[in-house]
Amino acid sequence: MVASTSFADFLREQLAPLGPISMRRMFGKTGVFCDGVMLGMVTDNTLYFRVDDDNKAVFKEAEASPPLNYAKQGATIDLAFWRAPERLFDEPDELLSWARAALAAARRVATKRERSVPRRAAKKGTAKKRPSRQVRKRSL
Known about the structure:
single chain; alpha+beta; Yope Regulator, Chain: A; five-stranded antiparallel sheet; 33% helix
């Protein structure tokens, strides 16, 4: 389930010091973006922050909760998003600290993806192009 309007507004307000915060529906959830990178996801008005190897220590407290996941072909797939503890919503400075760590992880992920794009682009450039279809005008 996506974030409620009031929860999304609350997050935008709390995370505003990071930069422009936007929300977008994705896969039945809500993605939380800052400067074009996804630092979090919301489902059922529960916030999950992006985690990677560099920020797992910051999120140690969140490790006890199950990560954001989905079912695929009978298996549960864990995503790299850990649940933000409820107490953070009463501690705005610490919420921002966690959000900054998640944003840094999101930027690292985005950088890795950007580095892999030229390889894909090179492969696409070597593919044969389809001949263009010519459209004939009919005379009436």
